[in-house]
Every structure is written in C-alpha cells, then in structure tokens.
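It would be a great kindness if you could assist me with a short task in structural biology. The matter concerns a single protein, recorded as an amino acid sequence and a row of backbone structure tokens. Kindly check, if you would, that the fold set down in the tokens agrees with what the sequence suggests. Thank you for your consideration; the sequence and its tokens are set out here:
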Amino acid sequence: MIETVWPYLALMPLAAGVFPSLEKRFQWRVFHVLPPIVWTYLFVTALAVAGVWTATPEIQGAQRALTGQLLPALLFLLMVTCDLRAILAVGPRVLAVFVCAMFSILVAIVLTYLLFRSLLPAEGWKMLAALSATWTGGSANLVAVKQVIGLSESALPAVLLADALCYSVWVLVLFSTGALAPVFNRWTRADQNGREYPQLAPVASAGPADAGNVLLWLGLAMLVGLGAGRIAAMMPTSTMLTQTSWTVLFSTVAGLVVARTPLARIPGPASTGAALLALLVAVLASQSNFRGLASAPLFILCAFVTMLLHIGLLAMLARMFRFDMFLCGISSLAQIGGVASAPVLAATYSPVLVPIAILLAMLGLILGTGMGLFMASVLSALAPAGAA
C-alpha cells in the first residue's frame, strides 16, 4: 500500500502511459470500443478503490497540486492549436445546445422529485435543489445554495456522494461513446459533413515534434499555468468566480493569444497536451472514493434517475433541433462536470472543441447559483405540507 507521495507520483504517469502505448504498439480492437483514455480512467479508479494508495494528507496534497497545475497548463497547450475566430462563428448554435442541456437537467430534477417526494426526507427538496446547483454550475454553486436555503450539514454528504457517483459514471459513458457519434448524428439528422463547425481546425505546425520541442512546450505551459495562478490570486473572487476560474480564464486567453503568433507553428503542443491530458485523467481517477455508499441509497437512486431522465430529454431535444453528439456531450458535462472535466472530454473528441467546453463550463458557473435557487423555489412549492 502506497502512503507516501513519490511512489504515487511514479505510478500516475506509468498508468497514464500504458494504454496509449499498447494501442500504438498492438492496435487491438478493444481500443476501438473503449479508447485508451477510458481504460486509463477505469484502471486508476480500480486501483484507488482497491486501496493501492492511502489518501494521506501528503498524497491528497499532491493530487490537489497536480490538478491545480496540470489543468491550466493543459488548457494553454490545447488553446495553442485552436482558432478562436472559427469558434466564435458557431456561438448561437452552441448556446442553444447548452440551454437545452440545462433545461433537460432542471426538468429531470422536477420529475424525479415528483416521483420520490413521498419517500424522501423533509429536506429532500433542498437536497435536490443543491444538486441542481452543482449540476448546472459547480461545487461553489452548491455551497452557495446550501447556505441560502439552509440545507443541514447531515444531508450534505448524501448530495456530494450522489454527485460524485453520477459524475463518475457519466464521464465514463461520454468518454466511451465517441465512436457512436455517426450513428447518433444520423438519428438526430445532424449535419454529417462537419458543417456544424466548418472552420474549426487545429493550427498547423512546422513538422513532427522532437524531445526539445516537447520540453519547450511543457516548460512554457507550466510557466503560463503558474503565472495565471499568481495573477488569479490577486483578482476579486466570489462564489461564482473563484481563483480556479480566474486561473483557467487567464491560461485559456494566453493560449488563444499564442495561437495567433508564429510561436504556434513550433511542433509539439498537440503531443505534449495529449500526454498531459492522459496524466490529468489518471490523477482525477486516483481521487475516486466510494466510501459511504450505503448511507444514502435513496438519494443516490434519485440522482441516477435524474441522470437517465436528463439523457432521454436531451436526446429528444437533439433530434428535434438536429444537434450533434459532440456538442450535446460537451454541453451536458460542462454543467455536470464543470471546467475541470468538460475540456478534457472535448479534447478526446477534438482539441478544437476545447474552447467551446471552457466557455460553456464558465457560463454554467455563472448561472448555477441562480438555477439552484430557482429550483429551490419550484421544489419547495411542490413539497408536501410541513416539508417546505
């Protein structure tokens, strides 16, 4: 059992690299069903649940540090390969998908409460309102709504556990179903020729990357991430605009600026970003913890029912408005997963979609508290007498 930080740090890049290496070396068919990043997520999650390492303060600190440093560096590298002008050209349709995803989440929560309100405790409506805040925004929105509506501390763990479990399952599903996009798009009658975002294309580099290029981009990305964090620490914060949000914003802007300079033509940002992406997924999976599952089975069931209703409603809206699968998946995870995971999913679909994921995640963070308070008013009105 690993209890110190260096064995843990050695294991993460090893776990992140094994499946991409196997795919490149052997081209096994299994990787056409589940891509290497999914196998990495499953493998590291299994190691975490099996207790290969103990979540000591030292290891938890390393996990926080890795996530905090890798995310802005990764986003910078991904932005370098993107064309902002092309992304701005698809704004209205992206916003429509985002609104439909949010609408489906809120309607699903109302339907779930109507199904289970006789079984839920008196605070059930508050718990679902808090869940709606984090599923349309993020954890900061959940905390804000909790404080406003007076959700008790004893009810909060069930909400957090349900959120974590549903999020983990949904991330795995979205990572695994990218190959089904053509089938889904035929069903929704979405554009099969890529005209949904016709100009989105990576910035061309001057040739293949070598070791020097990779080290150059890695060092530059880490410096940009550190600089973004330093500037973010000086910015005003709120429940909707946290220091992490500022860091993500600054590193994203830095990457988009560099993308319009000759520096972007130096080989390496794409391959370096792919390596950081795999490592970040491994670190996120290493924090999986399903202890306490038996303490809140009913609310966990409610959360999964909400998730299934959300998926069904969003699929119907996608068919109605001819949305493609990639935008639907990114819009959903931008709200349920937030800025830490939506860009990761977008990068597995196509790096050029990463800015869209960041935009939608930031928009969800802005709207999440308001949506949670709105749902609190709706659910309290539907609550049985004495529960409101």
About this structure: The domain at 5-382 is CATH 1.20.1530 (Na+/H+ antiporter like fold).
